[in-house]
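Input sequence (150 aa), recorded before submission:
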Amino acid sequence: MTKLCHRYQKLADEIAKLSAVVSRTGSVKHTGELQRVYQRRSNLLHEIKQQCKLVTTAVLVASEASQLNVEDLRLSARDKRGALAKAILNMPDELDLFEQAVMLAASYTGTEIRLERINPFQTSSVHYNCDSGGRLSAPRCIELGYCSMP
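Predicted structure, token format:
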């Protein structure tokens, strides 16, 4: 996965260089090359999204999870030029990546796996769907949260 991201960054740098040349010279040769690099970047982005789906599926199968909780984020980019705006614009639409991963894992394991979209408000501190209303305490680690009963 890291290699794919590195290749994506190289293509983004190449696009920046070619865009500068095209805007300076208006060369037809460089315009065609720029279009080819855009297409390669688009193909690479599709491959990265496929790998993300497969990695998510592998984690679901390995952990034998019965439910996947995903924050239901609705993000919009006000600007289109910054790094965060570009990342937001390249995010998969409407969580289709996670839906496909859950379907793949469910078909592989033969069990039902639910995809639960949760409210993103305070997900780092509130234990979602906890019967006792527990709070999460994560000591310097975002991935691991320990529930403490009130």
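Checked by second reader. Helices lie at 2-25, 28-63, 83-89, 96-109.
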